[in-house]
Amino acid sequence: MFKLKRYREVIFTSILDFMIILAGWFLFHINYPDSMSILIRYVDIGFFGQGMVISMYWLVIFVVMGAYKKLYLVSRLDEFLNVLKASILGVLILFFITEQTGEISIEDQRSIVSLYGATIFGLLALNRFIIRTIQRYFAQHGKGLHRAIIIGTGHAAKMAYDDLKRNKTLGMEVLGFIQFNGKAPDSSVGIKESEVLGSLDQIGRIMNEWQIQEVLVALEPESKQDLVDVISEVDSPDISLKLLPDFYQMVSGLSKTNQIFGLPLIEVSPEPMPFWEKTTKRLFDILVSLIALVITLPIILVVSIAVKFTSKGGIIFRQVRVGMNGKTFTILKFRTMYENAEENTGPVWAEENDPRVTKVGYWLRKLRIDEIPQFINVLKGDMSLVGPRPERPHFVKQFTEQIPLYTRRLRVRPGITGWAQVKWKYGGSLDTVREKTKYDLFYIENASLKMDAKILINTILTIIKGQGQ
């Protein structure tokens, strides 16, 4: 119920958009009845069915262009521009499709498609404008606001509270404050003890109990060094986390802020990869994995025989790892160690020149051939080609306690290769993991298809040079 409430703007807007687009199909048909067959001439499912198909087409275009991302109290101008960009892309694709029909002149086809695209744009832009205007009206009257809490009980927290209370169109209803240092709020600040919901170590329970959607961090300047610890406690993909920056950050340009009604806010870990890139990444994962498994089939057979007859144990090594959002899965690799290598030691890190590695396993690791079965994990959706390497639950628990923000690695699918693998040396120590985590977090914050391509190219070069370990 809570997650459904979180996406209510997207659900409501997408349903209304679909109905508007379908209405536009009928409206355009009334005025230009002979032109609609140009748009969908090969789909013989009746006029209404054709309207459903082309409405779904437009919906896909809008999803791919990110027109359903962050709709809550979005700027009406920004939304107008998003609708315009999506409409232009939709029209360009229809240009290409209709020009293949050859039934009428290209000029007439372009005129019809342009007019139809303009109709869709006009209807959707008007629809979005009305929705956001109504939403803004309700927000100004304190209705439909996101439930929020403020971390901090000092002057900065009180200032943020007053601004949010005064400017309802910021979209947050502050339910209370969270103590950071364990001390009761200073009476001179103006925050009552009854307004304090609890301390930072209780924030997980508080967020669940109060169904919090937004968390605003407003610490005093002398507490800024503890910001990482605070962010670690509120590390949840379902919570929008914002910071109140200090004056130096704003004037130096070190932080990109959203300036609304005089209250600057920094959004922590906004999702950088738009939906169309996520979709493309997943399709690319599937395509490359299928091709890789087919091409490497002879290698798979040879390696299977080599592993089977050079050491005792199975060909495929299976191990439970932690994937996206903390969900566990079984990773598949060619076995490179002797059977029961950890029987007497329990879970331990792999080392350079690890004595547990077989002679065949050494070369499989060096050429990264041992990871070929992981393409099956990619096909299943447990992994991606690019992402942070998945760890075992034992180590994830240990790292979570010792490395700040480590769990942010779990916001994306783990990968066969990643930024940390191509940029940092191999090693088996907490310090090494700490350094690799920095690279993983950098990847998550800057994820894009371009960066994935860069990582894949570097990985291929590493394999060619035989620098794997």
Automatic annotation (TrEMBL):
Signal peptide per UniProt: none
Membrane topology: Multi-pass membrane protein
Enzyme class: transferase
InterPro entries: Bact_transf (IPR003362), EPS_sugar_tfrase (IPR017475)
Gene3D superfamilies registered for this protein in UniProt: NAD(P)-binding Rossmann-like Domain
Keywords: Membrane, Transferase, Transmembrane, Transmembrane helix
Principal location: membrane
GO molecular function: transferase activity
Residue ranges the record marks as coiled coil: none
Transmembrane segments: 7-28, 48-68, 80-98, 110-131, 283-307
Location of this chain's protein in the cell: Membrane
Keyword check for S-adenosyl-L-methionine: no
Enzyme Commission number: 2.7.8.-
Domain Bacterial sugar transferase: 281-464
UniProt KW Transferase keyword: yes
Family named by the database record: Belongs to the bacterial sugar transferase family.
Name of the molecule in the record: Sugar transferase
Organism name: Gracilimonas halophila
Lineage: Bacteria, Pseudomonadati, Balneolota, Balneolia, Balneolales
